[in-house]
Every structure is written in C-alpha cells, then in structure tokens.
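Hi, here's the filled form for the chain we discussed.

Project: internal
Contact: R.S.
Residues: 348
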Amino acid sequence: MKVKRILSFIFVSSLALGMVLWPPATKAVQAADEVITWKSVCHWPMASSSYKGSLLAVAERLKKRTNGRLIIEPHPAGALVPAKEEFNAVKRGMVPIGVTSAAYPLAQVPLMNVASGLPLNFGDVWEAAYYYQWLGFEQMLKDEVAKHGMLYFTDKVYPTEVSLKKPVQKFEDFKGLKLRSSGILQTFLTSIGAAASYVPGSEIYAALASGVMDGAHWGAVQGSYSMKFYDVNKYHLRPALNVAGTDIWLVNKKALAKLPDDIQNILVSTLEEHFWMRTNQYIYLENKTLSKVINEQGVKLITLPPAEYAKMQTAALKIWDEVAQKSPECAKAVEMLKDFNRQMGRIK
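And the returned structure, exactly as it came back:
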C-alpha cells in the first residue's frame, strides 16, 4: 500500500510539474490557430487593374498559405486614409500593412525619388528588375524604410506610359499639354513644357472627360484600360516615360513581430515572391491589352522617333542629376543607374 501511495505521489507530482513547465506550448498552439485580420490601405481605386492583380491576389495567397489564419482586409484608395498619408498610417501603426506609391513619401525617404522612376531610366522591364534585385537597389530601399520602423517590398517593376486625347509626334508637342502626373514624372513633364499636375486616381476619368486634362499616365496600357481612359483617349504614346517599381508594400515591424513566427515567414516570402510573379504577369497583360484596345476601341499607338526621344533623354538626365543631390543614397543610386545605362550603350 505504501508503495502504491509513493508511486501515485510521484505520478501526480510529475504531472503537476509538467503543467508548470510546459503551458507555453499549449498557448503557442492556441495562438497559432488564431485567425488574425489585418486591415490594408492602398492607393488604387477598385477599378484599377492592380487592385485585383496585386492587393486581392496577395490577400488570397496569404489566406491560403496560412490556412486562413491571416486575413488581409483590403480597402481601396481613400477608404481609410488619403492616399498620400498611407506611408504615415503604416508607420504609426494605424494599419499594419499597406500598398502605396513611391511617389508620395518623397520627403520622408528621399531615395523614393529614384524608386518612383527617374524619367527614361530603362529601355525594358528586365533591366529594371536587374537593377532592383541584382544590383542591390531593392536592398537600399529596404534599409531606408527600416529607419521608419517598416519593412519594404516592391510590388512589381513596370512601364509608365501616357494615353492622350490628341497625338504627340515630336518633343515640342508636349508644350502646354495638360497631363495628369505625380512625383518625379510630374517634375520631368513640367520641365519639358507640359502643364503637369496631380489628380487623385478616382478623379482622373472625370478630368479627362471634361477637358480639364489632355492625357494621363496610370501604369501603361493595362492601367489606362482598367481606368477607362480609352473611352476618351484614343492615342497611346511610347517609349515609356520610365520603368519603375512605383507601387510599394509597407509592413509595420511591431505589428509583424506580434504574428506567430511561421506567419511572419509566410508573409515576407509571399511578398518577395510576388515581385517576380506580378512583374511577369503585368508585361504579358500589357501586350494582350494593347492588342485589344487597338482592335476594339480604335486606339492608335504612337512611337516617338529616335531624334525626338533623344531630346527627351537630354532633359531627363538633368532630372537625374538633381535627384542625386537629394541624399548620399540618391547619389549612389543615380550613379549605379548611369553606369548600367553606359553598359547598355545609351549614355556616355
């Protein structure tokens, strides 16, 4: 009997000790099973092709990969905060995640002047991807945004091209042209004589239809089509004004740290992977959509002659040099860009 009592005491004591030593494991399992909902701001109206192709696509991918444990609740442009305040909203933790334009937080992160797309910076999309991911520009941006308590991810690199209500055949045709623009491209277009001004995405169509604007850029062909610009704009201009990673994801570091470790890893890896998937998809859709609007909506593609393009490039290089003066990081990025273009034989 005494032996049984002793064994019983040992068993109960061991069980109690185990409950003391290992309760965190039980809590960890409970935390891992918890459904976490994050509100996301974005600068795209629901009509924009990237609202579905990027924001909703990433949200669905994260839901699937986390088995429904992380839900991204999307909010279109202006639904929670003004588009130009999205950087600060994520920084302050008002929302844990957001996707916005690099053209907006230029004052907080001067390097965004390069990220938003220096004019006439690349000849093709693959060049921009190489500059970002192989030459290290993406990491430079991550380092700068980290100073604001956030993680940074480029959504994609893609061309920015103008759709117009009237044709532009030569450099001089830009003079007086009323164009919707933003960021560094607004500065560039103004420098070559256009009357460039910012209009929120949700108001661009009305500005075009009413005659307030003669043209606009919202991505390239796909963006213009999704925003219905071709209802009134029957001309599309190339070469691209730039190829850039204008759309950017921001994640609040403190909010990220509160997630279970596996969800943190899934979120980061999904956004890194998304860059390549979305860049490739976007270019495919550009070519597909161009064919569609030419055949179905009577849009005419205009390609500026090399001599006229050269005039634009001369003006663009002046903008590059101005941006290089904004910070040591900008100077490094611009020199890196110049060196790349020298290797491609475009500048001396």
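Let me know if anything looks off before we file it.
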